[in-house]
Amino acid sequence: MKITSELVGTKLEPATMSWNGRDCALYALGIGAGQQDPLHELEFTADTTPNRQQVVYPTFGVLAGAEVGVGGLLSFLGDAVDTRTMLHGEQKCEQLSPLPAHANVVVSAQISAVWDKGSAAIIETVSEVADARSGELYCRSTQAMFFRGAGGWGGQRGPASGAAPLPEREPDRALSAPTRPDQALLYRLTGDTNPLHFDPVAATQAGFPRPILHGLCTYGVVGRTLLAEYADSDPSRFIEFGARFSTPTMPGDTLTIDTWQDGGEVSFLVKRDNGDVLLSNGSFVFKQ
Question: Where in the chain is the domain with CATH 3.10.129.10?
Fold first, then answer.
């Protein structure tokens, strides 16, 4: 197997999977729901009761999308890439229908772009998550994976990797989202057991001083914060959410989310306390 632009359009092996209310609640806890007030966000963290219907954070859909869009991609590529040097480059989630707390789904995906960055390759996949019985499409997940050492075959470099320009004014709002020192240990229970996020030896071998937080955990924390701030934590108002991973988040970091609103679209930039940019090119689209 060789990584080239000829891989674009390749359909990956689809997968069937299911989830239940416990899975959805565990994900909500993994991205910080109830962290500051355990009686807050109960509609996401607790089962349905006569007084409350359990709902699901829209970003939960990226977990199913990654089953084929990332896991299926790695199986397809085999030893053409070294997973120890893989990084999550970008992520976007589009919601077509609110996710139910219990579902059986079919996940399909294909390779949508392959870029040669010289010292690395970027492979983008697009996954779709649909109800196994009705075929109703719940969400579309686009993920770009960065493989160090896999470039240099002479392909196109693709879009520029710099940050997109932000509005030339002070942020409309600056939001704060804390993470816990043990956040990665909690989030890994949602299914991502990559040792990079809990094993100091694996983190050192990958070039990090200590285990880093999952990129999709940071993504979920930010998505949850923006949904609360701009859409009253109502999943039915979520349309689309995307960002580029710039610098790994460390468990325990407090995220500062600078936002600029233009109608139903919010541009955002995420930083840690020392000013390091964690997520760039951020866009959150919601129903007003």
Answer: 5-148, 173-286
